[in-house]
Amino acid sequence: MFLELQIRSTYLYLEINNRNGNYNLSFWRYLSTVKVTLIHATWCTACPATRRFWNDLKSKYDFEYEEIDVESQEGQALIDKYGIVGVPTTLIDGEPAFTGLPKKAEAIARIT
Fold first, then answer.
1. Which domains does the chain show, CATH number per domain?
2. Which residues, at least 6 apart from 90, have a Cβ–Cβ distance to it below 8 Å?
3. Per the database record, which ranges form the Thioredoxin-like fold domain (predicted)?
């Protein structure tokens, strides 16, 4: 049996083979965690549901999560950087991913 394990800066790779090559199992997983940033506003009517949505997923999946108020200095910088015109807006790993309440299956696919 042959076992290979590689630990890279962003992922883990494991491969198992038997000696005659008939059996092969490989597995890899990203080691870095996905970062979800929700840009929201106190006056936004859709934001509370979106906040609950991401907090619920956070209780079931492993990802970093932060909320940034659109009226904060950091929020304004993100609005300017990405040309965001509506809230709630969700960034995944620093890139705009969703505006409004995401569909659950799409959100899970992006964070797993």
1. 1-32 (no CATH), 35-111 (3.40.30.10)
2. 36, 37, 38, 39, 50, 54, 96, 97, 98, 99, 102, 107
3. 35-107
